């Protein structure tokens, strides 16, 4: 039976079969697009589940080395490390961040000793896992985070991480001028090939709660981070942040959180010729897990759809707690 008034264009034609969908697909997600954030804790053979991040644990250094091996086998190119510093090592000035034998540095050295350059190690630069007040920098008597004094400490933290073997320094503190200061210090200390991935557009977000549980800063944090992290209402300002960090020597930039900020990712992608990464943060992970547990959606499908959305928005890659699971799905 023929229809004399058929549509000129049938977009459904190319969607009709799996082979055809594969042929016209514009965006492809692979394990190489994933960066896996991992939480480190003291001890030996320790796994500590994190209640607000179901399925995510803190691992002792020996176990982090095993997670890194898993990542290599899955084709994940890079892991991101975050320490849960023991309470008695936290202080007002976060000086444990400068200790060459702190948890972070021991983990970096152990992973490098076991796996060499088979995997990249990204390290977060900010003082919040080390301060007794949970802020990312040094505070004055009113709790205000001091910019320039903080940058001085972050520079030393970054060099400490690079000396331990970090491959990518990722400042997440949002102080002004820290990228240039860190780049200069890395060069002066001989780390010419250590990259900087700047958390360029990092928003003061309600989606970081479970992360603060994971690094143990939630109960400590006084006030909020709105005097340095960006206002979620702003978009043009993100472009200024990115431009500034590129001018100061960032190799790549990050937008954080992820899904609620896909518009920012797209603007950055269109405005700059620099690799853009997104951080699908802890609260986003928890939302997906909660939705799946409540039967509101299929977990695997939610994971792959959201990660594909980052690629479509223009990302080179995504930091996600689902990295290992997603890589397993993608590897079939
Ligand atoms: C620390 C830092 C945070 C995250 C990454 N680095 C928390 C914060 O800024 O309070 C959040 C990551 C996540 O929620 O998964 N500066």
TrEMBL record:
Its EC number is 4.2.1.24. The keyword Lyase applies. It comes from the Bacteria. GO terms for molecular function: porphobilinogen synthase activity. It holds the Pfam family ALAD. Pathway: Porphyrin-containing compound metabolism; protoporphyrin-IX biosynthesis; coproporphyrinogen-III from 5-aminolevulinate: step 1/4. InterPro entries: ALAD, ALAD_AS, Aldolase_TIM. Keywords: Heme biosynthesis, Lyase, Porphyrin biosynthesis. Signal peptide: none annotated. It catalyses: 2 5-aminolevulinate = porphobilinogen + 2 H2O + H(+). SUPFAM superfamilies: Aldolase (SSF51569). Transmembrane segments: none annotated. SMART domains: ALAD (SM01004). Gene3D superfamilies: Aldolase class I. Belongs to the ALAD family. Homooctamer. This is Delta-aminolevulinic acid dehydratase. The gene is hemB.
């Amino acid at each position: 039976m023929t229809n004399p008034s058929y549509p000129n264009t049938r977009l459904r034609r190319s969607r009709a079969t799996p082979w055809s969908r594969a042929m016209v697909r514009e965006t492809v997600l692979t394990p190489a697009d994933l960066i896996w954030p991992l939480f480190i804790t003291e001890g030996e053979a320790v796994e500590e589940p994190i209640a607000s991040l179901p399925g995510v644990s803190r691992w002792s250094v020996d176990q982090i080395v095993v997670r890194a091996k898993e990542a290599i086998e899955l084709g994940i190119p890079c892991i991101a490390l975050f320490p849960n510093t023991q309470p008695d090592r936290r202080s007002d000035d976060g000086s444990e961040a400068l200790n060459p034998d702190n948890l972070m540095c021991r983990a970096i050295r152990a992973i490098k000793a076991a796996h060499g350059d088979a995997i990249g190690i990204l390290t977060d630069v900010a003082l919040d896992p080390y301060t007794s007040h949970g802020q990312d920098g040094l505070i004055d008597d009113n709790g205000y985070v001091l910019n320039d004094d903080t940058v001085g400490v972050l520079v030393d933290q970054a060099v400490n991480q690079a000396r331990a073997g970090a491959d990518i320094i990722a400042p997440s503190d949002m102080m002004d001028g820290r990228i240039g200061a860190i780049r200069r210090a890395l060069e002066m200390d001989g780390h010419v090939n250590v990259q900087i991935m700047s958390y360029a557009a990092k928003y003061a977000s309600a989606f970081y709660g479970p992360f603060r549980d994971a690094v143990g800063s939630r109960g400590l944090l006084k006030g909020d981070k709105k005097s340095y992290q960006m206002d979620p209402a702003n978009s043009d300002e993100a472009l200024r942040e990115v431009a500034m960090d590129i001018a100061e020597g960032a190799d790549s930039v990050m937008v954080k959180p992820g899904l609620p900020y896909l518009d920012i990712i797209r603007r950055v992608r269109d405005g700059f010729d620099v690799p853009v990464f997104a951080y699908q943060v802890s609260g986003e992970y928890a939302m997906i897990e909660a939705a799946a547990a409540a039967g509101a959606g299929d977990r695997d499908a939610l994971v792959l759809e959201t990660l594909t959305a980052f690629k479509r928005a223009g990302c080179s890659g995504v930091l996600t707690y689902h990295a290992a699971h997603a890589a397993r799905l993608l590897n079939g």
